[in-house]
């Protein structure tokens, strides 16, 4: 494939490395210094775009790709309030769009384990659930997009939790997400159910960024030539 990389920081460089290893070509690299190069002429060279920027630019970048008919995979987080609108634009334009808070294969398996555990814990109100996420100090958003996905999946299963808060919970119906920023941690996520008699805990620990980058390239391979809105569950066939 010919790939456009939108966001050419640390993650973009690793995505490029893995894409080349898998036989693809990177035909466009966009960062803050050449943002004006994200245009119809340059995107026409690409079969698919991979977008890893930030919450302030993701919506514009993704919709621009959709406008020019380029399938786009986005790993930017912190712009959840615009993602449903983006999905609508994708469908209206007959494009292809895939967004994930985390592209790691391991994390996406972890998402499914989290959903199952939350369902199993529904009848046991003596267990209180909390979340903790730890990332490097350059992480732009808090809580992480991965933590938000974990929290929302828990809320969907546990009626006793009504909302999440990025702090210590003050009310029983709040789900606490504690965020820590420690270098050089790539990303650790912990879901813990605690009672007076025991704890049940699931943890995912990333060793480096390569898992995120590999998943993004696999997602790009999946949506190239397709039309519609997709998820990593579709890519990895994890729905059960």
Could you explain the architecture of this structure?
The chain is α/β, with parallel strands linked by helices and 240 residues long. The chain has two domains: 2-103 and 210-236, Rossmann fold, CATH 3.40.50; 105-205, Dihydrodipicolinate Reductase, domain 2. It is built from eight helices and eleven strands. It has helices at 10-21, 40-43, 58-67, 83-93, 105-121, 145-157, 210-223, 232-236; strands at 2-6, 25-30, 48-51, 72-74, 96-99, 128-135, 163-165, 174-181, 188-194, 199-205, 228-230. A six-stranded parallel β-sheet has the order 2-1-3-4-5-11, sandwiched between helices. A five-stranded mixed β-sheet has the order 7-8-6-9-10, with helices on one face. Strand 3, helix 3 and strand 4 form a beta-alpha-beta unit. Helix 1 packs across helix 7 (210-223), helix 3 runs parallel beside helix 4 (83-93) and helix 5 packs parallel to helix 6 (145-157). The protein is elongated. The two termini are 30 Å apart.
